[in-house]
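To: structure desk
From: M.T.
Subject: fold request, one chain
Message: Could you run this one when you get a chance? Sequence is below, nothing fancy, just the single chain.
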Amino acid sequence: MSTSVHPDTHDVLEYLEHHLPGYPYDHEIDPDFVDELLDDFAHLDVLEQLKRFRWYHDNRPPNQRVRAGLRRWMARARH
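Reply: Done. Structure tokens follow.
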């Protein structure tokens, strides 16, 4: 597990674990995943994008590869 330097990490992890229905939260890999999202998409409000992703998919993640879907979502949001 990483030691995060991002102030938003806790809020994003909390949202993934408790507010994104069907998300396969993993205490071992999700802190690193979130830190990577926050680094790679620093120009975005990642928490806001997670909320948009959730409701765009009608409160259900689109498939079993949710992390890959979230990265694609963020990449598209940057443009």
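Reply (cont.): The two ends are 31 Å apart (CA to CA). Let me know if you need anything else for the meeting.
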